[in-house]
Amino acid sequence: MNWLRRWNARSLASQFFIAGGLISIAAMFLVGILVTHLIEEAVIHNSGAATALYVDSVVAPLLPDMQKASLLDEGSAQALDETLGQGALGRRLVSFKLWRSDGTILYSNEKELVGRTFAVNDKLRSAFAGSLVARYEIASDPESSEERALGKPLMEIYNPVLQPWSGQAVAVIEFYETAEGLSDSLAHARLRSWAAVAALTAIFFLILSVLVFRVSRTIEAQRRDLKERVNELSALLSENRGLQRRLQRASQRAAALNETYLRSIGADLHDGPAQHIAYASLRLDSDLLINASTQPETREKELAWIRSSLAEAMTEIRNICSGLVLPQIEKSSITEIVTRVVEAHQHKTETRVETVIDDDGPELAPAVKICIYRFVQEALNNAYRHGGGIQQAVRAVSHNGHVHVEVSDRGDGFDLSEVGPTSLGLVGLRERIDSLGGSFDVKTGEGGTTVTMTFEPMEVGD
């Protein structure tokens, strides 16, 4: 249903303005009709009551005992004719009838109606019950043919004639009044009532609209904020999933690299120090040392070979250990870390490394410091072994916790496709940096090789 989708797509304020406006207009018409009807009835009743009081005060003294009279005697009828036919009362009254409870007309200024009996209608019945009945309409009763012939609304009044000592209605006076000015009064009353209802409805609707629009703006703002938060959380969740997968892959590769490191260290120990120690052990069992007849010079020469092999084994073991053991860098700055690695590399290889360090001194996490140390160490070793140590350079920048380290040389470069997944150098650096959430990049070619690492380190203590 397209209209329902379009309706739901509107804001709450817009929905209220449309639905509330229609309901308010409908309520205004219903209330206006009811209020106008009540006001009209009140105006007609009050006007009829005032006229009935006046007529009753004039006519009642002229009436005989209505409980005993069947028709008015000639004297009473003549007195009524004279009273109703002249003066202010004669000008206002169109017709006059005196009813008995059985529907018989005891007197009327229309003489042909006197003595006739008509069906008792609701208005007459209410009057005999003691109530004043007033209507402003075109005459429709069977006995009101002459009044109906005028073709205009008249004030029709039924006023009970009450017995003084019992208060019982013994007769009913019915008369039609021209009611000049009543039409204008009713029109004015209708206009004022409709204006009041419309004004109150408009004020009420406007106040509610202001409140609803304010609430709607608040809800819309909260909805936008919530949507932004949900989008942010969704993005963070997606990023976290990516980081989790990345960390899992890095952990798996790191475990494989650790095994490769262990095999490499085992191979270095087996091919280096172990060979020299085995050689020395064999020479210790030689006959030249066991036989007493061996010349001192020969024995000393054999011992010199053994000492030389053991010395070489110790040297190789120290070299292997020096690459495995880190210096105390937990409290060192990035400037001190890079300087220490560069100086050690220059002393070991007897080459020169151009160094540029821009450090604003923020404290870095120990894992980041170790990563920087190993990165510069391994990159410089690769620059010396594969690039010949030509124009080696290290550039380290650390600002507001963001770290960027770059190691370059101007050697012949190499083919990145030849670097296998089990390579300990570049692959090990990439895995170490990835595990900390950083980025690693290698650019190589005929003009040399540049290796960079960039990341935002963790807070101290993470």
Automatic annotation (TrEMBL):
Signal peptide: none annotated. One of its GO terms (cellular component) is membrane. One of its GO terms (molecular function) is phosphorelay sensor kinase activity. CDD domains: HATPase_UhpB-NarQ-NarX-like. SMART domains: HATPase_c. SUPFAM superfamilies: ATPase domain of HSP90 chaperone/DNA topoisomerase II/histidine kinase (SSF55874). Keywords: Coiled coil, Kinase, Membrane, Transferase, Transmembrane, Transmembrane helix, Two-component regulatory system. It comes from the Bacteria. Residues 367-459 form the Histidine kinase/HSP90-like ATPase domain. InterPro entries: HATPase_C_sf, HATPase_dom, Sensor_HK_TwoCompSys, Sig_transdc_His_kin_sub3_dim/P. Residues 216-260 form a coiled coil. The chain crosses the membrane at residues 12-35, 194-215. PANTHER family: NITRATE/NITRITE SENSOR PROTEIN NARX-RELATED. This is Histidine kinase/HSP90-like ATPase domain-containing protein. It comes from Rhizobium leguminosarum.
